[in-house]
From TrEMBL, chain A:
Residue ranges with Low complexity bias: 637-649, 694-705, 719-732
Disordered: annotated segments: 637-656, 687-734
Pfam families referenced in this protein's UniProt entry, alphabetically: Adaptin_N, Alpha_adaptinC2
Keywords: Cytoplasmic vesicle, Golgi apparatus, Membrane, Protein transport, Transport
Membrane topology: Peripheral membrane protein
Organism: Penstemon smallii
UniProt-recorded name of the protein: AP-1 complex subunit gamma
GO terms classed as biological process: intracellular protein transport
Family, per entry: Belongs to the adaptor complexes large subunit family.
InterPro entries, A to Z: Adaptor_Complx_Large_Subunit (IPR050840), AP1_complex_gsu (IPR017107), ARM-like (IPR011989), ARM-type_fold (IPR016024), Clathrin/coatomer_adapt-like_N (IPR002553), Clathrin_a/b/g-adaptin_app_Ig (IPR008152), Clathrin_app_Ig-like_sf (IPR013041), GAE_dom (IPR008153)
Automatic annotation (TrEMBL), chain B:
Family: Belongs to the adaptor complexes small subunit family.
Protein name per Swiss-Prot or TrEMBL: AP complex subunit sigma
Claim: Transmembrane helix is one of the keywords in the record: no
InterPro entries assigned: AP_complex_ssu (IPR016635), AP_mu_sigma_su (IPR022775), Longin-like_dom_sf (IPR011012)
Residues that span the membrane, as ranges: none
A GO cellular component annotation in the UniProt record: cytoplasm
Record keywords, A-Z: Membrane, Protein transport, Transport
Residue ranges constituting the AP complex mu/sigma subunit domain according to the UniProt record: 3-142
Biological process per Gene Ontology, one example term: intracellular protein transport
Name of one Pfam family that matches: Clat_adaptor_s
Gene3D superfamilies: 3.30.450.60
Location in or out of the cell: Endomembrane system
Amino acid sequence: MNEFQNHNNFMDMIRAIRACKTAAEERAVVRKECASIRAAISENDQDYRHRNLAKLMFIHMLGYPTHFGQMECLKLIASPGFPEKRIGYLGLMLLLDERQEVLMLVTNSIKQDLNHTNQYIVGLALCALGNICSAEMARDLAPEVERLLQFRDPNVRKKAALCTIRIIKKVPDLAENFINPAAALLKEKHHGVLLTGVQLCTDMCKVSTEALEYFRQKCIDGLVKVLKDLANSPYAPEYDVSGIADPFLHIRLLRLLRMLGQGDAEASDTMNDILAQVATKTESNKNAGNAILYECVATIMSIEENGGLRVLAVNILGRFLSSRDNNIRYVALNMLMKAISLDSQAVQRHRATILECVKDSDASIRKRALELVYLLVNESNVKSLTKELVDYLEISDPEFKGDLTAKICSIVEKFSPEKIWYIDQMLKVLSEAGNNVKDEVWHALIVVITNASNLHGYTVRLLYKYVQAAGEQETLIRVAVWCIGEYGEMLVANAGVLDIEDPMTITEADAVDVVETAIKRHSLDLTTRAMCLIALLKLSSRFPSCSKRINDIILHHKGSFVLELQQRAIEFNSIIEKHEKIRSALVERMPVLDEATFSGRRAGSIPAAVSTSHGAAPKVPNGVVKPASAPLVDLLDLSSDDTPAPSSSGGDFLQDLLGVDLSPASSQGTNQAQKSGTDVLLDLLSIGTPPAQSSSSTLDMLSPSQGNKKSVDMLNDLASPSAPSAQAFSPAKNSPMMDLLDGFGPSPPAPETNGSTYPSVVAFESTSLKITFSFSKDPGNPQTTSIEAQFANKSPNIYSNFVFQSAVPKFLQLHLDPASSNTLPASGTGSITQKLRVSNSQHGKKSLVMRIRISYKVNEKDVLEEGQINNFPRGL
Amino acid sequence: MGIRFVLMVNKQGQTRLAQYYEYLNLEERRALEGEIVRKCLARNEHQCSFVEHRNYKVVYRRYASLFFLVGVDNEENELAILEFIHLLVETMDRHFGNVCELDIMFHLEKAHFMLEEMVMNGCIVETSKSSILSPIQLMEKAS
């Protein structure tokens, strides 16, 4: 029963499906067909098996489940006739994959077919094996395939070669067996076998270095000869594509040569001539020729240094770049990204063309060109390039704007020659595409602004101008509102006017207008409006004449449904009305935010801003610049990899150990105590101590990065790795916030060697309590440390209900065993011991830290002591 | 590893032939096909034939009412894949004689056989039209 004649039913089914107008109809037809197929299968109907399988394939392609047909495939494969086998194997490859256990049943059939007399059947079996075999099947049948690599029929040989590829990918250990047969394949004449043989060698080199060495020694000359013959061969109708003989083989050979020449100067030398010949003689008016040239250029770029060839390659790329065919341009841009690491001068010459490509109408080309431009930026051309990019930003597509904005911001940050230019560009970007600008970027902008004290007046006036024009850009409004709040009086008094500015008169009322418009706008979100409220508070102090008007605006928000706004409004209102005396102190000018610490923190917390699409690209000139303070970030373990934990109230500090509090915290007033409590907890572990004046906690999102001169010195101390972190922090203990937590303060480590690998330490000591930790490690498990904690009572009173709690940051895991007792006798006459187990997932990179809380009852009074332990020995 | 999948899709987005060289279950396939086809159909004539999708590339070309899409790894030579698509079309053309979408639909298994002779496990096996078509012609003669 042959399959090709009796297709009426199959075609009918297809026609029926085509005729369906809706998805529901189609589902009904398919269901009916599936039902009849299932019935036929269970009846073991011999006649229509192949037809049913053909139908199943079609249904599978449409996306319906067809697993009931899998056994049918197996039966068809096992039947003797060729058409049945054919469709059985096809079904096998389409309906099954290597994860199914059913596949194991096929192994025997395939083995028999591999030994069949009919070469086409052997070919079928090899094909199936090569597409979906699993590791066990590969091991079983590898000897058969090896034998078939030398079969008389070239078609079988070529399929055996590709089958081998899959085998060595699944079972790399077997690669050694195949090295010799593979090398023999390279001497073939038949193009098909040659093609697959070359592919086999390429993949082998990827899998096994032994193979790579072998091919390098023995086969390069042979390969070069083959390529030469191919390039010089006369017209061969069989393999000819638009005038070139077998471009696919050309490309494969070039790829193998690339693999062999990479990293080996001698090998690269032997290839130079042929590469030059291919690069110069190949015709580039047809796609086939261009494909070969592309591969040739890629090979030249990867192998060892040869000036002449490189120049040739870059010239070809230049030619591609000015071609009218979009495909060719795309390919050229791709290649140039790799070329830039080798010879950036040559690529710079094409800068203008590349800039044109950024504005191209084709999205793929735009993307590539933008990435390339990013790599090309250096100090000398940054201004002109940025100007072009910013100009283009105005007319670019919305989808592209995001990418473009991100890249412009990166470029501006890395290469800005002077602050005023930086501010100019950033403000332009904000007004064009503010909504695409990420938070870190405008935070950085504010840091820069505060540092440029001579530009404060200029900046705030510029912002005022932009806000009038582009009021919908949220980020712009945020920056503007913040600046107007801070530097409002400079705006009105026209302080610090630079020569380039036009004269402007702005009254206090105008400034308040801007903030009022912003706060009233419904499209702006909570953060912006909260910032507006604070700005209003600042302005009420700086512009006493507008104080009444500002108070009215704030009053309006007292009834806001949003808790944050309501709270702020109420508090600010009470400050304005009842606390006139402290108001000006509260809203004094912010301290200058330290740029070095901020960029250090950013470099630690944010993954590389620069990313090229070729992940493993070689040294890229504009790679991420890790500022010198980056190592300090790691030491102090800002949990930068995790998303910042939401802001914690004072009670949650045990959980929120190292979370950097980035959400806008509420302002002064009732929350002052709690907030400064969390500040201390955070700041002790982040860069810098909280500043001595309590007034400057307003800029909440930047609170962790607040530092002052002291902090920078502290950081320098910390840079010496020998000093344990606790010691360096002792100057911090004098900070005024400390009194909020009694008994605070880790003491300097007092190591007592007790013979174990790690000295035990006094983890915590206060006037009433002393805790000692001694450590031991299981030699087989270096990440886990067992700690025995010993509690000693220093006071003359007995402590009862003694409870010890501890919390650790996210990279540690803690397990507490029950304590030996919960009564602690007085004056050190007895002690409580408790065992802890800590597992460090960052063993070797980060050392242990722990927060502890001890509660006990003494003289009918409950006492709570809290502390932090930083003096764990290193290496735990 | 080289070629990840070969799809033939018509202008309405219906898949006419799908061959995958890596494992994807049914929902993934449908999702993939939907996404990619939408991207390719949205592009016009003058744009280049390469689309970047997730972590690989899709090379496509339109022949009459049918789109040929080939998903490849990032390291693959895109221009060569364009040539391969053309070779595929020419091979089918030689066999069916002026191949059109309906030919592929009604003779799906033959189209699969042809593709199988050309690509195995994601690698191009044979590029000579006669070598590709000879087993298929033999089969037809035998029946």
